[in-house]
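Protein folds are increasingly written down as discrete tokens. With that in mind, we are printing a sequence and the tokens encoding its fold.
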Amino acid sequence: MSLFVINRYLGDEVTTSEDRSKALLQKLHEQAKDRQQQQRPHSKEKGTPKSNHVEETDKTISTETETSRKTKKRKKKQEEEVKSPSENEQDSQLQEATHIKEKKQTKKKKIIVEEKDESPEHISEHDERSRAEQESSKTEEESRRAEEESSRAKEIEPSGAEVTTSNPNSILLGGFEPKAVEKVLPVLPQWLTQPSFLQKNIKQNLVPIHDIPGLHPKVLKKLEVNKVKDFFPVQAEVIPAVLDSSCHGFLLGKGGYRPSDVCVSAPTGSGKTLAFVIPIVQTLLQRVVCEVRALVVLPTKELAQQVCKVFNTYVDGMGLKVVMIAGQKSFLKEQESLIQKTAFGFSSLADILVCTPGRLVDHIQQTEGFNLRHLRFLVIDEADRMIDSMNQDWLNHVTKAVFRLEAGSPNMLFTRKEPGILTAASSCLHQTPLQKLLFSATLTQNPEKLKQLGLYQPRLFISKQKGNPNDSSETQMEPSISGNFSLPEGLTHYYIPCNLNSKPLILLHFLLSLRFSRVLCFTNSRDASHRLYLLIRSFGGIDVAEFSSRLSPGERKRTLKEFEQGKVQLLVSTDATARGIDIKGVKCIINYDAPQFIRTYVHRVGRTARAGKAGLAFTMLLKVQEKPYFGMLRDAGAPELQRQLVKSECLKQYEQRYEEALSELQKAVKNERAQKRS
């Protein structure tokens, strides 16, 4: 065994990697020569230079191999002197085997070298045929694919269109005309997708007050005194729905269940205020003890004052008390109008409370004895804006005040608990339900925002768009899904192309040349309205006033009264007057600054064309504003605006006086800044 190991080790030393490679090359060359002689004997006669080159390479390789062999033999002789004779015999056998292997490898290498050195002239006919067959098969496959693609293109193309292919590799495909993208409808709750529709046309859908079931004789008499003979479509639908939920008194709704909340989305000037005033007044006629049972929350002081005025008109002689807390009086005076301290504790002085959210939270936290434990109706007017102000957390304060337990009597008979999951035990506990009534011209259709209000099985009333009364259910559902806002029926829209320099001149042209009266002009900021007011006043010839937060509540009230009486021709205002305020006699609205949102536009133009009357609305648009503005109206489903051009010749007569007014405006602004600094 030891001898075998030694011999194998010695053999490995002799045949190194370099020697093996050389031997393999030699064998390959020899094999290539033999094959070349057998296949092409005539190649020797010709004596081509390439064959001579191969012979020379073979000679060089053979010489190199001989020198390497000699060196190997010398090493072997030196090692044989040390080895035994038996080992020498085994080494000789191994050497012979290696020589045989080397010859075979050299032959293989020669064949490879000859194949590489062959010129294109010596390529076999078999190779040329195979290549020709491959190319023909490729062309057949390409033509077949071209025919299949052309047949598919013809099937895809509409009738009448043909595909012309001059080259099978170039194919013209058709049927790629632009198609209308289908609108993806959101998944909404059932009460949003299946609302109760209201007729939009007021004049053609008036309902006599005596045709509404369930109205109290006192309420009917009060309506006749105020010259109300017919109800608008919104009032004719909403009033019976609210009365039906309170027909069994304060504790139960229809059928003994908790009443559903009501949401109303109708155009401006459609009579939404009277739609909640009448049912609340009639329901509270049954009350015995004076407690706050109706709470109306509004975003602005002016709107709160307007709603309070409507309530006072219909509670006169009914024994009900209406109180307003909107910051127009001092906090102490408001407390005195809300609560009266007696020998038995505190007693409420209000049945109906009209307020703004900030002032309401102040009284809940600071006014001793003020509570909302008997609240039956929570009315949220201009609901979309009130939802935006939910960061003040006013609704959370209201709900906590409604369901707050009295400290002295935790086991009272009619303890109010915040409603949860309906069970047999909870249905046996009778308590006053809190019903929420939402009203807005731009009520949001976003379920995430409406969820903040905590509505209970709400019922939605929405104004129906123009169209055939025999429309399908899918088309009738479109307003509730798309969230389009309704505009007054008698409103006509225009837009005026202009630039920054011509805007004041166009306004002067409307007031002086066209002699528009009772024009309400809207700007986007308080400073812009004040500068425009100063500019028109310095120009002269126009009775102008401004309405913004720069004025005190008393000044704003006086300004609105003068405008309604016709003493003011132009009222320059911010969006403070755009929300809900009913200004009588407004014939024209001018958007001096284009509104940035569709809701702002709806509320601005809603100050005219109220109660079914006609009105005009003009919007001044710069060239840059036209495309996004039209896109905003188109997405909201509003009608297209008509273009109203004002020629430059009509404005030249005002340019000289306008330049003088500008210089006076600069002086007035400098004086105002100096007064502020001092």
Notes: The chain has three domains: 2-122, 190-407+430-467, 491-677.
